[in-house]
Amino acid sequence: MQDFRENPNENFRQAYASTTVENELFDDNEMEVDLASPWQRMGARIMDGLPFAGIGILAAILVAFTGGSDGKAAMAVIILAVVAAIGLLIYNLVIMARDGQSIGKKIVGIRVITEDGDNPGFVKYCLVREIGYNFIFTLIGIVNENLGDALATIAGIICVVMLFMESRNRQTLQDLLAKTLVIKN
After folding, report:
1. Half-sphere CA count of 45, side-chain side, radius 13 A
2. At 112, which helix (H) or strand (E)?
3. Transmembrane segments in this chain: where (predicted)?
């Protein structure tokens, strides 16, 4: 992405200034940004899962075709699929930390920023917003699987509803946990 600012050292928030939505969280340092639409965010989430689904489907098909062998070919396919999925996950984490965008967010043209307008980086984006949020439900699921599943489903529904709440800056539970916003790029 080319930087068209006169002074490339000016802060990230000024580079993404807009005139659409004013956020009350910024107090004296008010910032205006274009919030990502709920449809963009849901589309990005779906696109994030498609490569992993593709790897799984391709692996299942290849394992089915190698079913008549002694199992070594099927195991090789499974190992290859796991390595591909881990590689894709690592790539996604790197670009999320570097650019504030997952693969799906890049395709859709949205990004995650902190409430201060900065790039959230690895800790806020990856560890808090993505891994930490899901880890909460995993821990609950370890204690009680049904409760963990129920709470994850309820949280998912709440997040979808929150996406449509422009008065609350369309911040989902993950955004509130990490103090982030999702904006149009």
Report:
1. 14
2. strand 110-114
3. 49-67, 73-95, 147-165
At 155, list the tokens: 């949280």
Secondary structure of 36-101 in HEC code, one letter for each residue: CCHHHHHHHHHHHHHHHHHHHHHHHHHHHHCCCCCCHHHHHHHHHHHHHHHHHHHHHHHHHHHHCC
Domain ranges of the chain: 38-184
The phi and psi torsions of 166 (rounded to 5 degrees) equal -65, -30
- At 27-61, the pLDDT tens digits run 555 668 899 999 999 999 999 999 999 999 999 99
Amino acid at 157: I
State how far the Cα of 171 lies from the Cα of 74, in Å rounded to an integer.
43
| Structure confidence by residue, pLDDT tens digits, 104-141 | 999 999 999 999 999 999 999 999 998 988 899 999 99
As a whole number of Å, the end-to-end CA separation of the chain is 11
Note if the pTM is more than 0.90.
no
